[in-house]
Design a protein that fits this description.
374 residues; 2 domains; 7-stranded mixed sheet; N-acetylglucosamine-6-phosphate deacetylase activity; EC 3.5.1.25
């Protein structure tokens, strides 16, 4: 199979084509072109497939439902250009988390047709601060290494969110890192010093930067201050509701490995109405998802929309925006074969027009049925 167009790479744009053989990119052929002219003349833009490490739901289904919910979620996000994702849990009783992970295990081992690759799990809770739950239910508890490793046996935990100020959590970061689990700081009421201590212990990043963490004050820098001063990686939700564009620009200047996630709920890709988020009922309206008291509760964002916000609202160059929704997350997870359009990489490809509207999606060389805007 050959895909022709303007190929977006981290270093610029190549006008040429990709050859795909057995689900992988066999060759990238073409010549550099000024990025300002990418997509001119109706040429399609070829971008690396989006990678989202924070996905609670989509298509009306929630990860915590177990059963076949993750299959629906992975199909829906693939239709919006996400070619690989981490299924993300909610804070809940351990028995509920175990049930969800048992359902996720088989899906992580084998990708279903017409679906994004489920790379593993982002365990967001229950090891968070009771004082910074955000939209998480009130089942926060301290973690133990044995418990985390037992959960990891059901489905591979790739990312674990913790509040470092919780008892014993700093001491767990090193052993978890050594086990291949990336520890992120989030849902934390901890101090700046707590954040620095967690980074020094091996914490890899921050979960949905700015949201559900102690804020920056000039005399009490908080967890946000620790992230901006010392963080190498952090997630950020660019739906323009969770974080003001000005704060996004601050984070882009401070954190080299800032990357985008959706924190999407069952409402993603669905009309306004009521949906489930763990044990909560949430309402989608006016582009956002909220609890009855107005608290933001995840999002209805999809990654194609995230890319458009980065380029059309924040003003990022297309190549940098593509990195933030794909390559940086791939590198963060240690995935050299994803997040880039390069020889030998998986043929995870998003095809867009000059207005960044989605036209085609390929996951590991399989074309996904997408809804193309007229």
């Amino acid at each position: 199979m050959r895909l022709e167009g303007d190929i977006v790479t981290p270093h610029g744009v190549i006008r040429g084509h990709l050859d795909v053989v057995h689900g992988r990119i066999a060759a990238v052929t073409g010549s550099p072109v000024d990025a300002a002219h990418a997509g001119e003349g109706g040429r399609p833009l070829l971008l690396p497939g989006f990678i989202d490490i924070h996905v609670h739901g989509g298509g009306g289904r929630d990860t915590m439902e177990g059963g076949d919910a993750i299959s629906t979620i992975a199909r829906r996000h693939a239709r919006h250009g996400t070619t690989a994702l981490l299924a993300t849990t909610m804070t809940a009783p351990l028995a509920d988390i175990e049930a969800a992970l048992k359902a996720l295990g088989p899906v992580c081992r084998e990708r279903a047709a017409q679906s994004a690759r489920v790379l593993g799990v982002h365990l967001e809770g229950p090891y968070i601060s009771p004082g910074r739950l955000g939209a998480q239910p009130a089942y926060a508890i301290p973690a133990t290494l044995d418990e985390v490793m037992r959960l990891n046996e059901y489905a591979p935990i790739k990312v674990l969110t913790i509040a470092p100020e919780m008892p014993g959590h700093i001491a767990l970061i090193g052993p978890l890192r050594d086990a291949g689990i990336r520890v992120q700081i989030g849902h934390s009421n901890g101090s700046y010093d707590d954040g620095v201590a967690a980074i020094n212990a091996g914490a890899a990043g921050f979960t949905h930067l700015f949201n559900a963490m102690s804020a920056l004050h000039h005399r009490e820098p908080g967890m946000v201050g620790a992230a901006l001063a010392h963080g190498e990686h952090a997630e950020l939700i660019p739906d323009l509701l969770h974080v003001h564009p000005g704060a996004i620009r601050v984070a882009l200047r401070c954190i080299p490995g800032l990357f985008c996630v959706t924190d999407s709920t069952a409402a993603a890709g669905m009309p306004d109405g009521e949906y489930r988020l763990g044990e909560h009922t949430v309402q989608k309206c006016l582009g956002g998802v909220r609890l009855p008291d107005g608290t933001l509760a995840g999002s209805a964002l999809t990654m194609d929309h995230a890319l458009r916000n980065l380029v059309q609202v924040l003003g990022l160059p297309l190549a940098d925006a593509a990195r933030r929704v794909s390559t940086v997350a791939a590198d963060y997870l240690g995935l050299s074969g994803r997040g880039r359009l390069a020889e030998g990489a998986w043929a995870d490809v998003v095809v867009m027009d000059a207005q960044l509207q989605l036209r085609r999606v390929f996951v590991e060389g399989e074309e996904i049925d997408v809804v193309v805007d007229a």
